[in-house]
Amino acid sequence: MITGIIMASGFSKRMGKNKLLLEVEGIKVLERVIKECKGSLLDDIILVYRLNEVKNIAQKYNIRTVYNPNAHMGQSASVILGVNNTYDTDGFMFFVADQPYLCSEIIDNLINEFNKDKNKIVVPYYNLKFGMPIIFPMKFRNDLLQVNGDKGGREIIATNSGLVKTIHFDNEKLGVDIDTLDDYLSLEK
Length: 189
Hints:
By secondary structure, the chain is α/β, with parallel strands linked by helices. The radius of gyration is 15 Å and the shape is globular. The relative contact order is 0.19. Helices cover 30% and strands 24% of the residues. The chain has 7 helices and 10 strands. The chain has one domain: Spore Coat Polysaccharide Biosynthesis Protein SpsA, Chain A (Alpha-Beta Complex), CATH 3.90.550. The N and C termini lie far apart (35 Å).
């Protein structure tokens, strides 16, 4: 069983407005991510949110939601909430909610690789660039509950390099995330 944790409680500071509610090809960025997660092999999906607008989109797709009262503490608060609200799983698959071109085929490919060895952290690279989503095995649960700041699980990956399985995708577009207005304006809409 794999649990998807969509981290959607950030402040979009570099964007200046909520990037998750921006539209790409007529669909909100967050909604695009949710649809691809719903169409994938994920067994359970949790969305960690801060704003009711974000929660409402998730509820439209019957996704479990968890409010993040500590969003100001960075990505780690979402990681901890997601892990603490996950039941009986083999792996935690963490998603950023600002990847408009992420597709269910990528998600499924990563899950299939994880299922071959459930002791490995599965990390995607898009045209040799580190990306998301990342799957952590259950054995890293306690480590995930100790993360802090805005780094998520990067330190866990760095200190366990022998347990990291990298999966390469040639299409860099699939891993694109949007952090700034320039990022958004450069998307093919």
